[in-house]
């Protein structure tokens, strides 16, 4: 499995930097957008009847990476969206992520990028873990004996 660092992990890193007051830009709206996308991914996992362990780990990871950060930032965002302080930093980070993924991970190869996207979609369709967290944790659980989720 070639590892592509999901943008969600980058957003979580942004959240950590914000909480540590290293950067002033709040990732709240980007966490919300990522969470909505993850709801769609979860729906696809349920639709394609993915393994209960994968679904459990996906939910657990998203509680840690999205729900808890959103909950901790919620009091800051009962206000109007500020495009410059809320949206643009995320667009810059997303652009950096795209360039990083294209030039560092795929080394500018259209074929590698196409194959990775195809692997991601097929992983959900064919009951295989698609995120690094789910992949490595499920692998460790299965290598260390029996597991039961339900």
Report on this model:
By secondary structure, the chain is mainly alpha-helical. The chain has one domain (7-143). The protein is built from six helices and no strands. It has helices at 7-19, 28-47, 52-73, 83-105, 110-125, 132-143. α1 (7-19) runs antiparallel to α2, α2 runs antiparallel to α3 (52-73) and α3 (52-73) packs across α6 (132-143). The model has no long low-confidence stretch (mean pLDDT 84).
Descriptive keywords:
single chain; 150 residues; mainly alpha
Shape: globular
Number of domains: 1
**What level of helicity do the residues show?**
over 70%
Class derived from helix and strand content: mainly alpha
Low-confidence stretches: none
Rg is 17 Å
Element string (H = helix, E = strand)? HHHHHH
End-to-end gap: 27 Å
**Averaged pLDDT, please?**
84
Number of helical regions: 6
Number of beta strands: 0
For the largest beta-sheet, the strand count, sense and barrel status come to: none
Task: Outline the fold blueprint.
Elements: H1 7-19, H2 28-47, H3 52-73, H4 83-105, H5 110-125, H6 132-143
In short:
This protein has helices spanning 7-19, 28-47, 52-73, 83-105, 110-125, 132-143. 71% of the residues lie in helices and 0% in strands.
């Amino acid at each position: 499995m070639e590892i592509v660092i999901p943008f969600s992990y980058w957003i979580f890193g942004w959240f950590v930097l914000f909480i540590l007051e290293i950067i002033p830009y709040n990732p709240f709206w980007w966490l919300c957008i990522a969470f909505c996308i993850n709801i769609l991914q979860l729906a696809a996992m349920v639709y394609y009847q993915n393994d209960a362990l994968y679904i459990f780990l996906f939910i657990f990871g998203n509680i840690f990476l999205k729900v808890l950060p959103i909950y901790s930032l919620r009091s800051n965002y009962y206000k109007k969206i500020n495009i410059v302080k809320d949206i643009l930093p995320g667009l810059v980070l997303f652009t950096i992520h795209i360039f990083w993924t294209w030039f560092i991970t795929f080394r500018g190869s259209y074929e590698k990028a196409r194959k990775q996207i195809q692997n991601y979609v097929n992983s959900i369709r064919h009951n295989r873990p698609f995120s690094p967290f789910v992949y490595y944790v499920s692998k460790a659980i299965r290598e260390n004996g029996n597991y039961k989720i339900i």
